[in-house]
Amino acid sequence: MCDNILVAVRLRPLIEREITFGNPICWKVENSNDVYQIDPQTKKISEHSSSVFKFDHVFDMKATNMDVYEKVTKPLVDSAVNGFNATIFAYGQTSSGKTHTMMGSKTERGVLELVVNEIFEAIESNPDREYLLRVSFIEIYQEQITDLLTGSTRLKVSDTHNEVVIKELSEEMCSTPDSVIDVMKKGEKLRHIACTNMNERSSRSHTIFRIIIESRSRCETSSDEIAIQLSHLNLVDLAGSEKVNQTGATGGRFKEGCAINVSLSALGKVIDQLSKNERMKEPGKDAIMPFRTVDNLTFEEWQAKVPMFK
């Protein structure tokens, strides 16, 4: 795609429901960049050229969250600590394992926790600079923004002079990895989750966990002009795209699914234009989701790095 956008695909193993129904494995990884579609009749790789898909990296079903982190995400931490913005997206169909990759489970740490630990290790290895970390956590649910740290809803977004700001959004200071993880867990409890035919714990909203990293040199004297280095690291867990005939959504669940698909479509337009090194004339006007992240993706695209997991 573009030099500052990296797309990685992770294939997850069949889940219990799919095994029970006898669903076949439909994809095969031949190398770290190509994934092939398997012919359901022959059980072999399809000979059609359209069945081969290339990405910056492909993880097979044996890959762990640590594998994903080490290969795609770890390089971004050093960039963020050194003043470069970065955004990490987890995108895919509902029940594809996005939240597991980002948030982890009781038995496996997620990318977010691994990122946080790496940030503090990088800070400790750089004693010549003084650091200040703040975090915020928002949810976009049916195009309405909620502050997951306070529970405040319907927050307003302003766009002034190429600066996107969410009014009255709270931030918490964090001085240890545990304090960051505690904030994340507190916010996760307020997130909209529901059961559908495809997922017992389906995320019904998008979330953005933002880590703001400020630093300055310890060597500067009081007479020096103090240069503050500021960067943002956004970790975005997107709700999965949905098809009504698969999820069985009706009523409120159906409305949620429509809002999810609309915002994902709008975000896709942002990513598409960035991949072509284009700027959006009216960034993020289609939906709040890309509007919130566009300060990192569009206005500062020269210093943003965007890995996407699908």
What order do the helices and strands come in, and which of them pair?
Layout: E1 5-10, H1 16-20, E2 27-29, E3 34-37, E4 52-54, E5 57-59, H2 65-81, E6 86-90, H3 98-103, H4 111-124, E7 129-141, E8 144-147, E9 157-160, E10 163-166, E11 172-174, H5 177-188, E12 193-194, E13 202-203, E14 206-217, E15 229-237, H6 244-247, H7 251-275, H8 288-297, E16 306-309
Parallel strand pairs: 1-5, 1-16, 6-15, 6-16
Antiparallel strand pairs: 2-3, 3-4, 7-8, 7-11, 7-14, 9-10, 12-13, 14-15
Helix pairs in contact: 2-4, 7-8
Can you give a write-up of this model?
With 310 residues, the chain is of the alpha/beta class. 30% of the residues lie in helices and 26% in strands. The chain contains 8 helices and 16 strands. Strands 1, 5, 6, 7, 8, 11, 14, 15 and 16 form a 9-stranded mixed β-sheet that branches. Strands 2-3-4 form a 3-stranded antiparallel β-sheet, with no helix packed on it. A two-stranded antiparallel ribbon has the order 9-10. It is globular, with a radius of gyration of 20 Å.
